[in-house]
Amino acid sequence: MSFATSPKATSVTPSVRLRERARSGVAFGAWCSLPSSSIVEFACAADPDYFCIDLQHGVVDMGAAISMLQTASRFDATPVIRVANLEAAGIGRALDMGAEAVIVPGVNTRAEAAAAVAACRYAPEGVRSYGPTRAGQLFGNSVSDLEEHALCIAMIETADGLANAESICATPGLAGIYVGPADLALGLGANPVDPSEQAVTDALVHIVDLCGRNDLIAGIHAYESARANEYVEMGFRMVTCAMDTRVLAAGFAAEFGRMRELRSSNSAPGNG
């Protein structure tokens, strides 16, 4: 089987941006849970270092995901997909579609981390099936080129994952760790809505330390800029600071709130 190669395959491509920005400073990202190319367009116009399409908790199907990736190709943000689970076929498909990094949830052991890495690598090191339908157009068809644009980022988000964090972080081929603070807080008996209790903070500091010792990108879900800044101060270098659903909800709430305040002021006694 052969695949045509586009000129872009020889240029500097967006995966370098996530990797290099995280190594030299902090990579800030946007999170897309809604199936909308328009949202991707507006989000990427704000110049994030990466954007992530959420196939785990988002309402995005594969058809929408490919359209979102195609829209994003006009911009420099690194395209990332959070896959639904550890299934190798789903990881490989996300990469074949043109994602340059996958965030893999549910990683609780070193064996599961190794399985996630293997799903991103071709034989003999891995189990990824060769069929780079869109990735070949973007990055070239050689195994080395395709694997260069297939960052594997494992999620630590449970008490079991935290207990095994040292061995998970030592997994060969892993590019980074991405923390889900809400689920991690739940696993530690803390509040998932405001995961700022000391037990959670201690866990986050521990994960950042392990990432530093193993030359991994330390990533985390922050939702909004104030929390994101706290995580940067902790040492995280891949920080999601804007989420489509929250940005939309906050924007609508703010505008309607202002309108109601104005109307209330205008209708007050003495103003009519």
TrEMBL record:
Matching Gene3D superfamilies: Phosphoenolpyruvate-binding domains
Annotated InterPro entries: Aldolase/citrate-lyase_domain, HpcH-HpaI_aldolase, Pyrv/PenolPyrv_kinase-like_dom, Pyrv_kinase-like_dom_sf
Keywords: Lyase, Metal-binding
Record GO terms (molecular function): aldehyde-lyase activity; metal ion binding
Domain HpcH/HpaI aldolase/citrate lyase: start-end pairs: 29-248
Origin: domain of life: Bacteria
DNA damage found in the keyword field: no
SUPFAM superfamilies referenced in this protein's UniProt entry, alphabetically: Phosphoenolpyruvate/pyruvate domain
Keyword Hydrolase attributed: no
GO terms under cellular component: cytoplasm
Similarity comment: Belongs to the HpcH/HpaI aldolase family.
Protein name: HpcH/HpaI aldolase/citrate lyase domain-containing protein
Species of origin: Nocardioides marmoriginsengisoli
